[in-house]
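Weekly structure sync, notes
Attendees: PL (lead), two postdocs, one rotation student
Agenda item 3: pending single-chain targets
PL asked that the sequence for the first pending target be pasted directly into the notes so everyone works from the same version. It is reproduced below exactly as submitted, 173 residues in total.
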Amino acid sequence: MDAREKKQMLLDSRYLRMTQIWAENSYCRRRQVGALLVKDKMIISDGYNGTPSGFENVCEEEGQDRSKPYVLHAEANAITKVARSNNSSDGATLYVTTSPCMECSKLIIQAGINRVVFGEYYRMHDGVDLLCRAGIEVIHLWQRDGEYQPVTLTSDNSESHYQEVEKFLATRK
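Predicted structure, written out during the meeting:
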């Protein structure tokens, strides 16, 4: 890894840690997810999963372990927030604690975001596959043995990397 790549990984790891802190703003009990949109080394938007503005801050159905249908994902919140501002997400990097789902991946593509960095996989990884297919640079920056390890995902290696992560996590249980 050359000096430029090391510097980028350092920035990526810092922004990713910031998404973890930002996720703490979520009232969701099942999973707290944070997202940051960064362009030219400036944070232009942020988001966390939760209910739309003006709704009660209760994400899960009462007595059930599932989210209410109107709960917004962190990525969707960050993208819609930047859409209401004077900033443009075109060419930005999205940092998110958890890999994007299929619906958020469609928004990412349409918003012109050209790079996505995430820390852990969502229960389904079809959103990552769609981003790779669209030519968006997707980086899984995962902590393994106490160090961040960046893996650039492509249509060719996405499935095998997902399986590798699953095996690794299974050994840690």
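Discussion points:
- The beta strands are 34-39, 42-48, 93-98, 115-120, 137-144, 147-153.
- Residues 47 and 78 are 4 Å apart (CA to CA).
Action: rotation student to compare against the earlier draft before next sync.
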